[in-house]
Design a protein that fits this description.
Strand content: 15-25%
Number of helices: 10
Structural class: alpha+beta
Oligomer: single chain
Length: 375
C-alpha cells in the first residue's frame, strides 16, 4: 500500500543579529589595512599580494545580497577576529544547532496543527554539523519529545531537498506516518570572512518542514507530487576541515582550505546548466509545461544564478512573484535558503497550483521537489 506525502507545515528561525553590507565593508577594510601594514615589507618585495578593499557596490553586483543574519556579529566585525564568537556550551546544555532547529520545528508543528507526538522521525539535514556524534538530529528529537528515530545527513546546500525526498519516500512506503526535516545552518562559522571574494556570502538561519500523509493534514498543504536528486563530483566548492586534521603535519595551521572555498566562475558556468537541465527534465517527465508552473523556490546563493535558471525553466524572464528571492535579506543560508523562500512565499497560491522547490550546491548536488497546493 502506498501513501501520498505532503508538506503540512513550515517554520523559520531567524537570529536576532543582522549585519548590513556597510558594516561588513567597514570591518573587512579595516582588516585589509591592518594586514597590509603588518606585511608591508613582504608586499613591497612581491612576496605577498596586498589585500584590496571591498565595497557595498561590489557585494550587491556580485551577489544581490544586502544584509545577513548571524548568531554572533561581534567577532565577525572585529578586524582582529573576523569570525563569530560562540559560547562554549557544556555537554549538559542543548547544542546551538539543536536549539535553532527546535525553534523552527515548533513553528512548523504549530503551522500544521500538530505536536511532537505526531512525528515519527527527525532528519537534521545541513551542510555543517557541529559535531560528529551523537547525531544532532537525535538531540533535536529528544528536546522536542518526538518518538521514533532520527538521523543526520549532509549534502551541502542540497541537504533540505534530499532530506525531503528521504522523508517523503518513507511516508509514501508506510514505514512512518510523518517526519520533520530540519535545516539548522550556522554558515558564518565556516565562511572565510578575511577573503574579499566571498566574505559577504553566508548567513545563519534554521528551517523546518513537516511531511506527513495527505489524509492527516489538518489545513492547507502541499502535496509532494515528485522528487528528484542528482550529484556530480566537483572540487570547485570545498572545505577540507575535518576530524583527521590533527593527524596531518600541517593540519592545525591556519590554512585557507580549512574554511569555505569556491571557484566562483567555474561554479556558475557548470552549475547553472546542470540545475536548469535537471529541473526541465523533471518537469518533462511529469508532464508539466512551463506555463503550468506558478512558483519557483530556488536555492538562495546568487541572484544572477537564479535569474538564469528561472529564465531557462520558464522560457522567459520570471516575474518577481514567480521566483521569489530572499537572499537580499538572509544571504546564502545553504540548505535552508529554498525553504525560507517557500515558507514566506507560498500561502498565496490556490488549490491546484504547481511549484518547484529546488536546491543546488557543493558536490555538485541538485534536488527538486514538485508540489501542488491542496486543502
Amino acid at each position: 500500500m502506498s501513501f501520498t506525502p505532503a508538506i503540512t507545515g513550515t517554520g523559520v528561525f531567524t537570529p536576532e543579529m543582522s549585519i548590513s553590507n556597510a558594516e561588513l565593508v567597514v570591518a573587512f577594510n579595516a582588516y585589509a589595512d591592518r594586514y597590509n601594514a603588518e606585511n608591508a615589507d613582504a608586499i613591497a618585495a612581491g612576496e605577498l599580494d596586498a589585500k584590496a578593499h571591498s565595497s557595498e557596490e561590489f557585494i550587491v553586483k556580485a551577489s544581490g545580497i544586502e544584509r545577513r543574519y548571524v548568531m554572533d556579529k561581534s567577532g565577525v566585525l572585529d578586524p582582529e577576529v573576523m569570525h563569530p564568537l560562540l559560547r562554549q556550551r557544556s555537554d549538559d546544555e542543548p547544542s546551538i544547532m539543536a536549539e535553532m532547529a527546535v525553534d523552527a520545528a515548533h513553528k512548523a508543528l504549530k503551522a500544521a496543527g500538530k505536536t511532537a507526538a505526531d512525528v515519527g522521525a527527525v532528519i537534521c539535514a545541513a551542510s555543517n554539523h557541529e559535531r560528529a556524534y551523537p547525531a544532532v538530529a537525535i538531540e533535536i528529537q529528544a528536546l522536542l519529545g518526538v518518538p521514533g528515530f532520527a538521523f543526520d545527513m549532509n549534502v551541502a546546500c542540497s541537504s533540505a531537498t534530499f532530506g525531503i525526498q528521504a522523508a517523503a519516500d518513507m511516508v509514501r512506503s508506510g514505514s512512518i506516518k510523518s517526519a520533520l526535516v530540519v535545516n539548522p545552518e550556522i554558515c558564518s562559522a565556516h565562511l572565510e570572512w578575511r577573503d574579499r571574494d566571498c566574505h559577504f556570502i553566508f548567513g545563519d538561519v534554521a528551517t523546518a518542514v513537516l511531511i506527513e500523509r495527505i489524509e492527516d493534514a489538518k489545513g492547507p498543504y502541499f502535496e509532494i507530487k515528485s522528487t528528484r536528486c542528482a550529484t556530480e563530483f566537483s572540487n570547485n566548492i570545498r572545505n577540507n576541515n575535518g576530524y583527521l586534521r590533527r593527524s596531518r603535519p600541517d593540519g592545525i595551521q591556519d590554512r585557507r582550505d580549512m574554511q569555505f572555498m569556491q571557484n566562483g566562475r567555474k561554479v556558475f558556468k557548470e552549475v547553472v546548466p546542470m540545475v536548469s537541465q535537471h529541473v526541465t527534465s523533471h518537469m518533462d517527465d511529469q508532464g508539466i509545461a512551463a506555463d503550468q508552473l506558478k512558483r519557483l523556490w530556488l536555492h538562495q546563493a546568487n541572484k544572477s544564478m537564479n535569474d538564469f535558471i528561472g529564465k531557462k525553466v520558464l522560457g522567459r524572464v520570471p516575474l518577481p512573484v514567480e521566483q521569489p528571492n530572499i537572499l537580499q535579506d538572509y544571504a546564502n543560508t545553504s540548505s535552508a535558503g529554498s525553504i525560507i523562500a517557500f515558507s514566506q512565499n507560498s500561502n498565496d497560491l490556490s488549490p491546484g497550483d504547481l511549484g518547484i522547490i529546488c536546491s543546488f550546491g557543493a558536490g555538485y548536488s541538485v534536488g527538486s521537489v514538485i508540489v501542488e497546493r491542496g486543502g
